[in-house]
Request: fold
Amino acid sequence: MITDFVFNSQSVTAGHPDRMCDIVSDALIDAFLRQDPITRITAECALSKNVLFLAARYASDAVVDIPETARNALQKIAYRLQDFNAADCTVVTSLIEQSKSVRETDVSALEDDEMDHITVSHQATVFGYACTHTPDLMPLPIALANALARQLFQARKTGALPYLSPDCTTQAGIEFANGKPKRIHSINLIIGCEDSGAAPTTVQMEEDLRHHVIFPVLANATIQSDNLTKIVINPDGPFMRSGPRAHSGMTGRKGDSDTYGCFARHSGSALSGKSPSRIDRVGVYAARHAAKNIVAAGLADECEVQLSYSIGYAGPVSVLLNTYGTGKLDDGALRKRLLRHFDFRLGAIVRDFNLRRLPELHHGSFYQQLPVFGHFGEQGLALPWENTQQALLLQN
Amino acid sequence: MPEHLESKLPLYLAVKNNRLAGRGRIHIPGLYRNERLRDELQAHLLSLTGVTAAHANTLTGNLLIEHTPGQELKTFLRAISLFLEGASGRPVLLCTEKVDRPQKAAKATATKTTKTQSIDGSSSYQEQALHFWHALPSDRVLAILDSTENGLSAHAVAERFARFGPNTLTHYGGRSPLQRVLQQLASVPVAMLAVSAAISLATGSVIDALAIAIVVGINAAIGYATEKSSEKTISTLGQLTPGKATVIRSSESGEVLLHDLVVGDILALSPGTCIAADARLINDARLSVDESALTGESQPVTKNFAFQGQSDTALGDRRNMVYRGTLVTGGNGRAVVVATGRYTEIGKIQDLVGDAQAPETPMQKQIDSMGVQLAVVSSGICGLVFVVGLLRGRPLLEMLVSAISLAVAAVPEGLPAVATTTLSLGIKNMQRHNVLIRKLPAVESLGSVQVICLDKTGTLTLNKMSVVALCRLGCDLQAKQGAFFQNQTRVEPDTVGATFRRMMEVLALCNESKQGALGHDLIGSPTENALLQLAIDAGVDIGNLRSQNPVVKTDYRAEDRPYMATVHLTQNGCYWMAVKGSPLALLDLCQWQESDNTLQRLTEADRDKIRTGNERLGADSLRVLGVAYRLLDSSDSEDAKDLVWLGLVGMEDVMRPGMAELMRQFHEAGIATVMITGDQSATAYSVGKRLGLNGENGPLEMVDSLHLEKLSASVLAGLVGATSIFSRVSPAHKLRIVKALQMNGKVVAMTGDGINDGPALKAADVGVTLGEKGSDVARSIADVVLQNDDLSAMITAIRQGRAIYDNVRKSLHFLLSTNLSEIQVMVVGALIGGPEILNPIHLLWINLVTDIFPGLALAMEPPESDVLKRPPRDPNEAIVSPKDYARLLRESSVISTGTLAVYGYSLARYGMGPKASTNAFMCLTLAQLLQAYRCRSNHTSIFNPENRPPNRYLDAAIGFSLALQALAIALPPLRGLLRLTPVGALDLLAIMTGACLPLAINEACKKFDVPHTLGRMPHDH
Reply:
């Protein structure tokens, strides 16, 4: 097995059209759940120039002004008005109202055995992963790429870099030795610039980005850059057109940076735009929770949990676990402990993470923060599936 | 022009150069060669502080003024204009206050609409000066217009009326009788006949030429008569009863006809006044005006005479102006008329749309092109017969006559008359259903409508507010038609509790609506009417309550005060303040809540609940107001604060009854429905849901855009395909929506009643307006006016429209198949040689007897029973498709075979001669008349008569034609003219067989035809 290699992961900032679509989709989840926690909704968007296409199917008692909610979410990304004006973009909606199903019940009021009646409605094989690269047990490449993206967005927000557009992409390359991250091989930033007459010089831009983006991120990183670390900024020159004006976006196209940056497997379906009734979203959170607790318990250095769900079953039809030889115990024994202490039934996941009430508890803005702050890790929100309290239980 | 009026025209001061600080060059009117003015002006200016030098040049007319840099040139300009006004006695305007006259729109050469000058010939009147009146103070406006607050003198009024003309808008349409006659005659078939007639005349057969002329004349007369009667209907519709305006003239107030208003008149405005001309307010008291007819904004606008705008202030923001066509909803005021007639804002819009182009209707195009095609084809056949005859060695003259008679036979002369008559009959028929057709082709367009765009406010709704939800802490109520419900169960208002009672009292007291004389009607703004009605429904005795709690102070809603508060003196000498207003702002002022007569402090949780309630009501398409009150120690207490929260009321625009059913009918008829509204999308969504705009639970596609104009036309065209709601759209965008739909190849009907809707109504294939509500402009542009404001009439109109198109097709089918059979008989006759089977007079007789009357009767066919269950026809499909031609050929062959068989039988019995011709003539005439029954429907036949409603006109027409035919054979002089011989019993039997058998065969053949509606699928449903 090759254990010395470079691994690259990439991410995008909040103003990337794909991300914007994720944010809008999840803003709708928030808006509906806030009014009616027992809502089912699936929302997907596509964005091109100044037209937002929005398709939603929902079963809810909530009354939401959908285009307005979408516009408010887009407004927060704060494009310059001449680049993208959320207030007067056209929103084309295709809405289907449905009726609630057994999955739309208040799980907190249910007895444990009643959870068996809440069966999943989608077939999904989902993965959860955790490793010891970072304190919050995420793979280092994606953790770094996401941190860079967040810092870029922050730098724009604070106005530190006036020419910075909200639409940038980042890439972090980590050199591994013996399967462990050893040094930062490269940092690659593609920066969208707002066309304000004069483009910044490359030298100026590099200086700014080092100072305002790269150094602040690396200050908190477990591994520092060295003299050989390649820092590449806009090798093709500044991008003077960025955002929805330049390219289009869709919900759920940034699955890799939403999860583990391709360092571990991830399911093909999108996370954003799905209410907690969808196992292909909440199952991913449950699998991460399980994997993270195993690593946090010190039972393995890395761990991947796989859950397979079939329509008509309340829980997974298969639970698999792989520690890639780093386990303190046999994988089989670990799986037994996992099954003893973790409940992977849909109803139980919704109940244990309190998924339906999270928007209410966060003043109407929870899920829409995930595309920006990351669905995993401990960078912003306190995510219930990042909680490692159950690590103690896993000791036996 | 009278001299003294001329001298009252304003002078203009033009600033030439003020780029250098401390000096400016100004053009002074009247300075040229006027040394006295120069000296006085220089002296006057130098006396002003700040002016260091003033040099007026009498040769250039310019004044150079130098002043201390601290001063602004503007202050001196004011001084100069005042000085000049004093010196010349004429108003002086700065050039920046002057605007150009509107550019005359370049006249489109391809414009089809015949635009005639207004009846009053306004071109002979002087144009009115257009100023930015809203940017001038009112006293200057009065000065410029040479009017006073006491109005004009009778003399001045007469003078101005003579100069500027009456206050009327330009009228369009209306053709002269000659134009109409010429239009009847200017068709290709008529031209063909004219050529035939000319040849007949040249060859000496005057009778033939005369017969042709008579046929043409009869057709033209029928066409003229029908079109004239329908135009008469249309023109009477355009005329509205002239209103009156209250005007102050010579210090006395009186009523004058709108027509007689002149510039400078002082209008007295009071609630309900329909403003008759554009005017500048000179004073007002809380005047509010509904400008929806002009701006599409349905909320009344508050006016203020003291407001002074900039030259670029938008029409809707000119708060010191009132415009023609708008309605005073509250307050009162006086205004000086600044523009009348076509110089008003409405007049200008009407001028604009007058030039827009109306699309030609599909049937017009088709019948035109078919006429040409038929002419070409029949000329070809005539030529063929002519050549064949010559080759067979027949004399030239004889062949020429034959060819001409064939041409006469081939052309369906009745065609234009039948189409016009069918359409105009449709107009009359629709009128009985309160649908007024303003343009003839619209009848036919109605039949092919594929998409109908509907205005929400006023069309789908009644444009009348009504309270539907009450939201108090811990108790939500619904109101419906005067009754109250809690969780779907009805509750009596007096059992709900004291807080509810208090809330109703606040709504009744903090309310300026009044009960009308009848008790049922309320006079006031829609919102306050709705609130007062609620209180009445809740059992509050308004008169009693108001007299016991007289108002001592009223604070109206204003920009810095998002609520209205009234202070009342109660019977026990206390004061209390009733407040209603913007929910969130009011909530911030509240500290308390009341439940069952005890006050409790509002907790943060309560506030959250109220905010969520507000959000829900707002999102649920309601207009929400908060209600609060407070007890006071004295009447002149400070502003509202420390209030007691009572609850929220949610109001909505009441939906017209039966709209959901109507939408279902549209969908069943294959017509897509699109709602266009300026509302928020949540409102639009809930209305769309209730209406069932998406059909059977399909997705509801919605486009929500404040700035539709930023979307490129092709993108919009891509979006509109499946969209059933456009929300937050301004009336100006309707045109874009209509055009986008048309880009998709749709035939679009559009409803609208505001003046801003004009261009969209014009561009739509069918522009629809609601009669009573619609503005004059909308009514004059619309193709269809629904008279009793009921959209349901639209489905009737569409049914009629489809039936009419069907009927034209039926008539066409009849005319073509019968004429074709004549051609076939003649061609066969020419081919077999010998004397011609039918002579030209025979053919003309057949055309006159069999074409027109049954053709017209077919136009009166009642709609077939499934007419509203079929999808709309494809507008691009030919009115007679190739498949139809094949069918026509088949049917005409059957008919001509029958006739030729009878001819053959007669030849065998009598040999060549008039006897055989007579039998063939009789047989062909009868068979053609019977063919009319075949043409009644493509789906039903004489074998299943129960499926078709009777058509008594057809029975009568056939009876009449049969009688004429019987006369032809029985009346010796007529018989002589037609060169017929008497018919024997056996011959009669043969003729009957030869005429009836083809009908039976053709009717039986229908069974094997694929029903044409099944062959086509609806486009996107």
Q: What stands out?
A: The domain at 5-11+141-243 of chain A is CATH 3.30.300.10 (GMP Synthetase; Chain A, domain 3). The longest strand of chain A covers residues 164-177. Chain A touches chain B at residues 35, 50-51, 55, 63-68, 87-97 (CB under 8 Å).
